[in-house]
Design goal:
about 100 residues; mainly alpha; 2 domains; two-stranded antiparallel ribbon; 4 helices; rod-shaped
């Protein structure tokens, strides 16, 4: 037989849901400035793991800010260019080395 949750546990969960509703934007996948799973946990008395699980299931996953995604794309592009330039330089070096050998 399952035991009934304590009054404190029910209040903690209710506060957690209220805080998530107030400070997490499900559409963007971002918390309001200064808020996080940890802060919701601290404020509600729920564990960070519980907040994270409930937020993901009921409100959605955290999403990377678009600025970070753009930076990742820029870095990837620069890495590709660097690899191409190194290959080109190695080819030129091999030609010069062969000419002087």
């Amino acid at each position: 037989m399952a035991s009934e949750p304590s009054t404190a546990a029910v209040k903690s969960q209710a506060k957690m849901f209220t805080l998530l509703s107030q400070h997490f934007d499900a559409e963007t996948g971002h918390y309001a400035k200064g808020w996080s799973d940890k802060k919701v946990a601290d404020e509600s008395g729920a564990s960070p793991a519980m907040v994270s699980a409930v937020r993901a299931e009921a409100f959605g996953e955290l999403k990377e800010p678009s600025e970070i995604s753009a930076l990742r794309s820029d870095i990837s592009t620069l890495e590709s260019l660097m690899v191409e330039q190194i290959a080109s330089l190695r080819t030129e070096l091999a030609k010069v080395s062969k000419a002087y050998a």
